[in-house]
Amino acid sequence: HHLALAVTYGGLPEVRWPVCRSLADVLAVVRARAAVTPPGAWVTVYGYDEARLAELRRPTRDELDAAAPEHPVLVIHHS
């Protein structure tokens, strides 16, 4: 599994999730990374788990697009 992640996502900038307790926390991580990433470049985050969020759901595409409107976003789940 780790080898597959290294090969697939190894060339993309990555942010490991801090402890997120809500969707607002998750979207704040995406916004913060987007703020320091050139427009059009990938915002990639790894370590996401919706089971640990108060809402018990994933962020929607619309929520991610609103958090990083000038960037493609890749959220890699990990549980």
Question: What does this entry look like structurally?
Answer:
- The chain has helices at residues 2-9, 23-35, 61-67; strands at 15-16, 43-48, 73-77.
- Helix content is 35%, strand content 16%.
- The two termini are 13 Å apart.
- The longest helix is centred in the middle third of the chain and has 13 residues, at 23-35.
- It has three helices and three strands, in the order H-E-H-E-H-E.
- With 79 residues, the chain is α/β, with parallel strands linked by helices.
- Strand 2, helix 3 and strand 3 form a beta-alpha-beta unit.
Summarize the structure.
The chain is α/β, with parallel strands linked by helices and 79 residues long. It has helices spanning 2-9, 23-35, 61-67; strands at residues 15-16, 43-48, 73-77. β2 (43-48), α3 (61-67) and β3 form a beta-alpha-beta unit.
Order of helices and strands: HEHEHE
Q: Kindly state the percentage of residues in helix.
A: 25-40%
Q: Using DSSP, what is the number of strands?
A: 3
Alpha-beta classification = alpha/beta
Name the beta content range: 15-25%
Keywords:
single chain, 79 residues, alpha/beta, 3-stranded parallel beta sheet, 3 helices, 3 strands, 35% helix, globular
Give the secondary structure arrangement, pairings included.
Blueprint: H1 2-9, E1 15-16, H2 23-35, E2 43-48, H3 61-67, E3 73-77
Parallel strand pairs: 1-2, 2-3
